[in-house]
Fold this sequence. Notes:
The chain is of the alpha/beta class. The chain has helices at residues 7-10, 16-25, 44-55, 68-82, 97-109, 128-134, 154-160, 183-195, 252-265, 271-283, 285-308, 333-344, 370-391; strands at 31-32, 92-95, 117-122, 138-143, 165-170, 199-203, 228-233, 246-249, 321-322, 346-347, 349-350, 362-365. Helices cover 42% and strands 12% of the residues.
Amino acid sequence: MKNLLSDQVVGLKPSGIRKFFDIVSERKDAISLGVGEPDFATPWHIRDEGIYSLEKGHTKYTSNAGLMALREEICHYLYRTQGIRYNATNEVIVTVGGSEAIDIGMRAIINPGQGEEVLIPQPSYVSYEPCAILAGAKPVIINLKAENEFRLTPQELSDAITDKTKLLILPYPNNPTGAIMEREDLEAIAKIIQEKDVFVMSDEIYGELTYKGKHVSIASLPGMQERTLLINGFSKAYAMTGWRMGYACGPRPLIEQMTKIHQFAIMCAPTTAQYAGVEALKNGDEDIAEMRTAYNQRRRYLMHAFREMELECFEPYGAFYVFPCIKEFGMGSEEFASRFLEEEKVAAVPGNAFGDSGEGYLRISYAYSLEKLKVAMERLSRFITKLRNEKS
């Protein structure tokens, strides 16, 4: 029998997040700070709209690109919040989560077999590198630095660009670090992007969860909309992870080709979720504000707790993660996380799950109640005190 499996797929590493999550799922006594999922339920008025759509019998396929009403609301929302104008007819596609948008976006951009390069700043979301490989690109990793607050600097970008560079992934606000890029940071790299004729995939799934000023999309800068694929969704901002709803906005030629892939592979995003998404965009601003306030309170608490235990951690201003440094303890991220789980029954994700530059760090999610975070921090303080005593 011929080899059944694709060598390319077999060669991909499994997600480091899911690997650790599977271990944690067997430990019912553990406090988990590892999952990047809001602890809030989807706001009731959004759920109610989904239920109402079922009661009305809206159970058939929608347009491949998504309900026109939803695409129009996406355009209204982006103009209202970012000042960017998109055409709902041919510059927007509704996808099965932001992850599908990343996948089909890369497949529509990359020419396999031509050595085209995708720049991926890391630490970052685990799907970028495998999606680039599956699309036939060569991933080029840019290792971000804590001393730069894990922002992408103009120098780092310039050093990574070659004549084969086709696409830059811009993952801000960032998972796992919580780093953000402010307007002046984006303006500095936008000049290089335009000079070197690079296209950008801007993953803004955490854009609404920004705690320092207002999130700025690189697509809103002069000359950048036509060379940016903006990706966002409903999972994080509206606590709608299980609804599987994302979207992508970009130049018409690109969206048309993404829609073609989506058409053959998926057909359309879930109909019920699309009706709920219309309601979220129309009337969900207060929900976002309430959840953001709660997350910010938890963020500030964790930073205070780290200072109290003298654990090094730069202050993140986006998403719902902190990324403390554990290098002082002389062990790898996986060993630290495994011992923390075994000895204190608290689960966090090893930093190297997000790339080699995440080694020596730990991702802690604060999409959990303040009460649970306080218990976890008491256990972390006890654990690192024990480790410091072992070293002395």
